[in-house]
Amino acid sequence: MVGGRIRPARIDDRRQRGGAGPGSESRGVRTGLGSNAGHQLFAGPFGGSNRTRDRAASQTARRTHPDRVHALTGCVRALLKAPSLVPVLRVLACLQPIAGLGVIADSLLRRELRFRTIANVRIVSYGVGYGGVGIVAALAGAREWALVAANATQAILTTALLLRARWHSKRLGVDWPAARELLSFGGGFVLARIGNYAAGDGDNMVVAKWLGLSALGLYDRAYQLMVAPAMLLGQVMDEILFASLARIQEDRSLVAAAYRQCIVGVAFVMLPLTAVAWTLAPEIVYVVLGPAWSGVTTPFRILALGTLFRTSYKISDSLTRALGAMYRRAWRQWAYAAFVIGGAIIGQHWGLEGVAWAVLLALAVNVLLQAHLVMKLVPFTWSSLLAAHGPALLTAIFLGVPAFATARLLRAVLHLSPLGVLGGTLAVVFTFLAAVLAFWRRPFLGQDGTWLVGQIMEFSRKPLRRMQTSANGVQ
């Protein structure tokens, strides 16, 4: 510690003592090159809007410019003080035109609500890219280039499968009415996308510049552990909700009702999950990452408190995009980015923990800003928002208290291994959850929660009914 600030050398020392994983610096290089973020920024901000892409799908040609990205790599060297990122970023820049070829097909599939097809494409491309090519390259000693090879394979295969799944005209030309709509609607989307990109990766830039790549590897592991459940639920709901709300956007009362039900569902999943993740953070890190990554525990525990924020704002964001409030959404994304980057710069004086607290605060501010915009667009109030979270908060307390007590007992008294603590605590949590669903559904879940559980149970019974019908038909 020097003046309250952790220097990269200190992070490296901690890594040697076992606080950082053996691949934390390589992980930091991977995070610094930002493969996913690079797709968002360089493949074109217009790439995220189904409405704009669908409107111009038949005649508007999209072009990307990897030569410009190639020229910007010198800025990366100066900004992050990481020259090892430059050749990697240059290779990734060449993938952007390939990824762009599949954007229109992807948009048309979304508009047609063919999410199963999109999911199959993603599963296959990710499995082949990272599960096949990436692992083979890593075993061959390719280090960060194994991730590049995996990313390239995934991008090429995704584009090929999307074009195969949804044909569209490849004729080049300009549809001027579509172009005017793109400039009007898409301008706000561009501003929002850039702001969202800055918010999503600004903290990584700060950590890499002031704390070093080893610290970035630790921070990225903690962040990915936090964001995994949020992405799993939030991303799926975002894609489906946007297409669904766009179809009923004229009926604002119906939109508000759908928004409330989504908020209730997200809260019921994320609030109990937050309580359990905070309690079991040491065991989760140990089991998922291994004993060498103990330095991830504290940042992960802090970031886990924002799991609900990370998912909830995606629901609000889907609504604002579906209703076309792009410019009002854009300045909120820039405010979010300012809180992330500014807070991270201040927080880095206290190390990764300070950055994590700053990002948590920025997530909370972003949720409030997005909810405020929702209330400007549909008949929804702050009291309705708080009421939607009430039953889920009660459920989280009911599950979190025994989880905390059980974990303390298994650690301090019985001295079980991390895997034993994790398994024993989760068994207690699921027992209490089963009791809630079986005996106390109405008091804990409320009207909306009870309705959602009923819908989920009904949906889960459909495949069983189809299997039973097929079996009876065979007999």
Q: Would you write up a description of this structure?
A:
There is one protein chain. The chain is built from 21 helices and no strands. With 475 residues, it is mainly α. The protein has a domain at 8-21 and 197-460. α14 crosses α20 (418-439). The longest helix is centred in the middle third of the chain and has 36 residues, at 176-211. The relative contact order is 0.10. Residues 1-18 and 34-68 have low confidence and may be disordered.
Topology (SSEs and partners):
Layout: H1 8-16, H2 24-33, H3 35-42, H4 50-55, H5 66-80, H6 85-93, H7 96-100, H8 103-111, H9 115-139, H10 144-165, H11 176-211, H12 213-247, H13 252-279, H14 281-289, H15 297-304, H16 307-322, H17 326-347, H18 351-377, H19 382-413, H20 418-439, H21 441-474
Helix pairs in contact: 2-6, 2-12, 5-6, 8-10, 9-10, 11-12, 11-17, 12-13, 12-15, 12-16, 13-15, 13-16, 13-19, 13-21, 14-20, 15-18, 16-18, 17-18, 19-20, 19-21, 20-21
List keywords for this structure.
mainly alpha; 475 residues
